Amino acid sequence: MRELAGTLSAALNRVVDAVVVILLAALVLDVWIGVLDRYIFHWQFNWPEIMARYLMIWVALLAISCGIARRDHIGLTILIDRFPVTLRRAILIGCDLLALALFVWTFIYGLQFAISGASRFALIFGMSMAPAFAAVPTAAALASVQLLLCLVRDAGQYTVQDQAAEV
């Protein structure tokens, strides 16, 4: 079961990583178009700044599940490392369950948020705000699935890497 969860987590992470890279490339291109417009060509585009904002929100929120898959998020273990292994595992599993509850709650309320965006319109694009607002429930759902898979995969046996020692 743990191996299957690890395989599914890695596969999901590869897909989300690819989407994040594509959106980040689009964000960089969009910002460059805005810079060229403002300082060189004076095309008077009104959309690059707004598009960059929405792309950045999607990239940042989708990257949460990538961090969960790699266990790359910040962890303060100064206190946890002092506990015996069994208690440490229980604490780490408890933290994962609390985070899972937060992401599920965010997903539920994020759906309402995205649905409310359907009736709001971006004046510059003339489009519904639902696609922009959908970043919240989408990211929360991905984070929930990824956290559940990682919880099964790791079962509280992960450790926070000392990144300073890796350099």
TrEMBL record:
Domain Tripartite ATP-independent periplasmic transporters DctQ component: 31-154
Transmembrane domains' residue ranges: 12-35, 50-69, 90-115, 121-143
Keywords (A to Z) from UniProt: Cell inner membrane, Cell membrane, Membrane, Transmembrane, Transmembrane helix, Transport
Any GO CC annotation of this UniProt entry: plasma membrane
Subcellular location, record wording: Cell inner membrane
Membrane topology label: Multi-pass membrane protein
GO molecular function: transmembrane transporter activity
Primary site of residence: membrane
Gene Ontology terms describing biological process: C4-dicarboxylate transport
Described function: Part of the tripartite ATP-independent periplasmic (TRAP) transport system.
Family: Belongs to the TRAP transporter small permease family.
Complex formation: The complex comprises the extracytoplasmic solute receptor protein and the two transmembrane proteins.
The protein's name in its UniProt record: TRAP transporter small permease protein
Organismal lineage: Bacteria, Pseudomonadati, Pseudomonadota, Alphaproteobacteria, Hyphomicrobiales
